[in-house]
Recover the amino acids of this structure.
């Protein structure tokens, strides 16, 4: 193994702590939203609704949904990255561990619940920065959105809204938690994530490396990973 290939593998390993910490914190944010009992994001509503109607844990449902969305996005022309696959699998693992190990309290009373909800949104914002800044692939849902935008030739906001309204309605009828938290997630998540990116000095338009390009980089057939 030549020095260039070793350097590329070294750069990949340096990115792992940020990726894994980001996915863990994302799972923490999801559980905080659930435990607030004030309503979840559209995808959270959908996944909790599915978990109620299937013999699976919330984490396992997250993995199943993530895999289905990943494959659909790939079919639409958005190949996944290592971060995409890790997002699909590890967030589900971490959700179940956080709940099983009792790492978070379940607040009683409106004010503690609201604090839990808002902190969960902030945690997800920070988590998004940590796992996206390594540039190893966005989450499966982003891949689906980009694929549909490309195929349908529609604005991002229209496609994102259509996806989220669809999963919200289906999740609601499956018994998922809809409430003021659903509205706050819709209103606040975008600005919180954007603020996290700005504070972290991350450009959301920067290129994400898919699995095929990563394979070429690690084999020395393409230029190295960005630091």
């Amino acid at each position: 193994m030549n020095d260039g290939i070793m350097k590329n593998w070294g750069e990949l390993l340096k990115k792992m702590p940020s990726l894994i910490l980001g996915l863990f914190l994302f799972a923490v944010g999801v559980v905080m939203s659930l435990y607030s009992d004030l309503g979840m994001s559209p995808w959270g509503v959908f996944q909790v609704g599915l978990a109620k109607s299937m013999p699976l844990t919330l984490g396992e449902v997250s993995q199943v949904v993530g895999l289905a969305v990943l494959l659909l996005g790939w079919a639409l022309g958005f190949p996944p990255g290592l971060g995409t696959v890790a997002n699909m699998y590890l967030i589900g693992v971490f959700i179940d561990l956080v709940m099983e190990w009792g790492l978070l309290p379940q607040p009683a009373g409106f004010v503690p619940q609201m604090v839990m909800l808002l902190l969960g949104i902030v945690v997800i914002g920070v988590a998004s920065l940590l796992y996206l800044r390594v540039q190893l692939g966005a989450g499966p849902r982003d891949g689906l959105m980009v694929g549909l935008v490309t195929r349908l030739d529609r604005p991002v906001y229209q496609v994102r809204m259509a996806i989220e309204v669809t999963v919200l309605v289906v999740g609601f009828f499956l018994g998922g938690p809809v409430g003021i938290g659903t509205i706050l997630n819709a209103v606040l998540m975008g600005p919180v994530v954007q603020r996290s990116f700005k504070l972290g000095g991350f450009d959301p338009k920067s290129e994400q490396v898919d699995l095929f390009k990563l394979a070429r980089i690690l084999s020395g057939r393409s230029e190295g990973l960005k630091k």
About this structure: The mean pLDDT is 92. The chain has one domain: 3-218.
